Amino acid sequence: MYYFAPVSDMFETSDYIAVYVELAGVGKEDINIEIGGGILEISGIKRRRLRADEEYNFQRMERPFGLFRRRFNLPSSASYEGVKASFEEGLLEIIIPKKKRSGGFKISCIEIND
Description:
Blueprint: E1 8-12, E2 16-22, E3 31-36, E4 39-46, E5 66-73, E6 84-88, E7 91-97
Antiparallel strand pairs: 1-2, 2-7, 3-4, 4-5, 6-7
């Protein structure tokens, strides 16, 4: 099965990881987002919106349609709790918080037995 890969940006700050995916012409209900096992997967379908009662002779066809999928490897600092997604004007934004640091290494004293 053929999937096209929509263009995207991924970056991180000290507090979160952000993923932006361009999905112009895709309905919110046609987007699936899954996260787990160190991977973020965005998939769905972009439907062609043409009238069924007319015949078309395309002169140029550059916009992809059909199934799409993008997979992103996430750093180990990614937290799966509190992930937020928004979709506005064809741009999907996903914000993945980073795990909070514990403040350093915990030091324990271990007694040596005779």
